[in-house]
């Protein structure tokens, strides 16, 4: 099969490539472990800050009954038509555009 590398090559060549192989393997292991841990930390941080941002956004968007009443009153103030008349006009416009 394989011949003994110490009998085929000079001793300095065998040691050089042996150490080069060991160093390459160690560097590969260190890079792989660092990448895995770094990407895990980045994912955890991103998830944490996204959750905090969503909680803050939820607090801002949380509408109380007073806010809903205010929105309804603003909409009726901007649109003084009764609901039935508004529905009829919208139906006519939709028919004109061929949607209904």
Write the layout of secondary structure elements.
Blueprint lengths: L4 H4 L2 H51 L3 H14 L4 H15 L3
Describe this structure in words.
With 100 residues, the chain is mainly α. 84% of the residues lie in helices and 0% in strands. It has helices at 5-8, 11-61, 65-78, 83-97.
Number of strands: 0
Q: Return Rg in Å.
A: 36 Å
Span of the ends, CA to CA: 83 Å
| Unreliably modeled segments | none
Beta strand %:
under 5%
Summary tags:
100 residues, mainly alpha, elongated
Task: Give the gist of this structure.
By secondary structure, this protein is an all-alpha fold. Helices cover 84% and strands 0% of the residues.
């Amino acid at each position: 099969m394989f011949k003994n590398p110490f009998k085929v090559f000079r001793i300095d060549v065998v040691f050089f490539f042996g150490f080069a192989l060991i160093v390459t393997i160690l560097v590969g292991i260190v890079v792989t472990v660092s990448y895995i841990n770094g990407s895990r930390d980045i994912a955890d941080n991103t998830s944490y800050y996204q959750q905090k941002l969503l909680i803050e956004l939820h607090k801002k968007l949380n509408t109380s009954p007073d806010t809903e009443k205010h929105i309804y009153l603003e909409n009726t103030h901007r649109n003084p038509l009764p609901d039935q008349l508004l529905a009829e006009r919208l139906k006519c416009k939709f028919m004109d555009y061929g949607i209904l």
